[in-house]
Amino acid sequence: MKYCEYCKVYTREDRENCPLCENKLENINEEHEQIFPKIPSIYKRNLALKIMGFISIALIVLSFAIYFLFPSNINWPILVLFGLLSVWLDFFFLIRKKHICLKK
Ligand SMILES: [Zn+2]
To answer: 53: helix, coil or strand?
Structure first.
């Protein structure tokens, strides 16, 4: 954090000059810099998502394998595929709009 003596303002940006008066900014101690925690803009994918992805792919492969081993009139592995696709789409939109998760 930097400080302008002329304007008496603090700036959080890493500038050399004051944005208001263009005078040189002074560095101040680091105590004021950690007022708010840094929140990452991109969340890391956790283990549960990886496990769910693996289970989904395994289910699709398994359903197609069973269908080719025991053919039937109904092409039900496509239904499994679209069912999992709809689950993942729902899950994706729930994660993106997690603040209104209960509303969904
Ligand atoms: Zn200034």
So the answer is: helix
Of the candidates 27, 33, 34, 20, the one whose C-alpha atom is nearest the C-alpha of residue 3 is 27
Bridge partners, residue 9, by sequence: 4
33-66: pLDDT as tens digits: 566 777 766 666 678 888 889 999 999 999 999 9
How many angstroms separate the alpha carbon of residue 34 from the centre of ligand 1? Answer: 22
CA trace torsion 90, 45, 42, 93 (10° rounding):
0
Return the beta strands (E) in the chain as ranges. Answer: 2-4, 9-11, 26-27
- Those residues whose beta carbon sits under 5 angstroms from the ion ligand 1 are 4, 6-7, 18, 20-21
Instruction: Give the burial class of 25: count Cβ atoms within 10 A of its Cβ; 0-12 exposed, 13-18 middle, 19 or more buried.
Output: buried
pTM here?
0.48
